[in-house]
């Protein structure tokens, strides 16, 4: 990008955020006779790169497989991927570039709550689809009937609220703690976790206890851990991503404090026990699908693992499936939309109730005109001998299935 372009985009992005002009029309761009251009932005260099890098790789593998198989109704997919460093301001700038310069058809599988929330008004005001962000925050799928632009956003990840509430419910029922507490990232993602904590304890007639926060990107958790230990917390919900979760459990170990921990989807990944080692043993977690390992994978998952290793030279992990599935769901419904692919025809296909089943054992994904959240069921696991082991499948805090 030329240096002179950057200030102009920054100014335009800020104006767009300030004014948030009303949506006039759903817009179609980035579609030619031979190509569909999609855009995304992820953290490839900052605190969430343990998610961003493999998720990006997953997208690239899915695109390669789809294109090798003839593409989508004769069109090949081209991905424009940018590094936002988990910085909302940078995400806004990048999104402006994707829309105005790269002319993408849709934003697919952008990552992070804060980095999705900040630029979403730009996508909506442009009349473009915002699909399957790798965050389970409610704003990514919740629709206001008075806002036609809300038809443009779809997600397929079990909400942070649901997975955290399910995890808290399960662990309280199983371990009977006297003082369940929560430590959380102080942002939009963290609010989902604290709402889940407060609501679930209220539903179980248990008084709320210590609720302590940290800033996004924090590296020192000694004060938060010391406070929870001093307050007598014997169960702690971690409203955090991988690096921060490891920091919290490591700080707890140094203080000789051993509460029962439970994590939600941002830390329900193989990297957590790999990085945290013995500090994570026994921790409970809730996530979208069962966690697989390269040396035990079978069937279609084994092929995915082999293809990923061949393309990138490293083993696939749970994070890679998020990007892979995002592209596969996009392709599935884009094919259903037909040869005359437009933003509106893809929305119609998505809202048809048609079901998509992934290869990783996740719950079926489907949308309707009134529901743009594709799935809400989750898996419960526990770390045993350094690996996630599935305890229960297709669970909800509302009704166990």
From TrEMBL:
Signal sequence span per UniProt? 1-24
Q: Which residues cross the membrane?
A: none
| The Leucine-binding protein domain, residue ranges | 35-386
Return the similarity comment.
Answer: Belongs to the leucine-binding protein family.
Species of origin: Rhodopseudomonas palustris (strain ATCC BAA-98 / CGA009)
* Ribonucleoprotein among keywords: no
Q: Which domain of life is it from?
A: Bacteria
By its UniProt entry, which InterPro entries does this protein fall under? Leu-bd, Leu_Ile_Val-bd, Peripla_BP_I
- Cell cycle keyword on record: no
Give me any GO biological process, just one. Answer: amino acid transport
Protein name (Swiss-Prot/TrEMBL): ABC transporter substrate-binding protein
Keyword vocabulary terms for this entry: Amino-acid transport, Signal, Transport
């Amino acid at each position: 990008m030329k240096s002179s372009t950057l200030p102009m985009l920054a100014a335009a992005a800020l104006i767009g955020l300030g004014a948030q002009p009303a949506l006039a029309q759903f817009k179609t761009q980035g579609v030619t006779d031979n190509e569909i251009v999609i855009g995304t932005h992820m953290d490839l260099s900052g605190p969430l790169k343990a998610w961003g890098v493999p998720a990006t790789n997953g997208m690239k593998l899915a695109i390669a497989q789809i294109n090798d198989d003839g593409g989508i109704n004769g069109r090949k997919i081209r991905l424009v991927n940018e590094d936002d460093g988990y910085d909302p301001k940078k995400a806004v700038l990048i999104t402006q570039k994707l829309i105005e310069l790269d002319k993408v058809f849709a934003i697919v599988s952008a990552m992070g709550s804060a980095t999705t929330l900040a630029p979403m008004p730009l996508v909506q005001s442009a009349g473009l689809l915002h699909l399957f962000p790798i965050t389970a925050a409610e704003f990514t799928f919740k629709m206001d009937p008075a806002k036609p632009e809300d038809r443009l956003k779809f997600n397929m990840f079990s909400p942070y609220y649901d997975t955290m509430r399910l995890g808290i419910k399960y662990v309280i029922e199983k371990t009977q703690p006297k003082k369940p507490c929560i430590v959380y990232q102080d942002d939009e993602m963290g609010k989902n976790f604290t709402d889940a904590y407060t609501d679930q304890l209220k539903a179980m007639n248990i008084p709320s206890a210590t609720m302590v926060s940290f800033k996004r990107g924090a590296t020192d958790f000694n004060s938060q851990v010391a406070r929870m230990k001093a307050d007598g917390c014997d169960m702690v919900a971690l409203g955090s991503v991988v690096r921060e979760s490891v920091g919290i459990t490591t700080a707890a170990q140094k203080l000789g404090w051993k509460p029962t921990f439970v994590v939600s989807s941002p830390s329900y990944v193989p990297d957590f026990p790999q990085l945290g080692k013995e500090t994570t043993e026994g921790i409970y977690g809730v996530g979208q699908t069962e966690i697989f390992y390269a040396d035990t994978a079978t069937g279609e998952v084994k092929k995915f693992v082999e293809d990923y290793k061949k393309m990138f030279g490293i083993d696939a992990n749970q994070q890679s499936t998020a990007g892979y599935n995002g592209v596969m769901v996009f392709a599935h419904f884009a094919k259903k939309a037909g040869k005359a692919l437009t933003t509106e025809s893809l929305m119609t296909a998505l809202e048809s109730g048609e079901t998509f089943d992934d290869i990783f054992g996740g719950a079926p994904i489907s949308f309707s005109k009134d529901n743009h959240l594709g799935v809400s069921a989750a898996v419960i696991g526990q770390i045993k001998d350094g690996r996630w082991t599935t305890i229960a499948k297709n669970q909800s805090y509302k009704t166990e299935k």
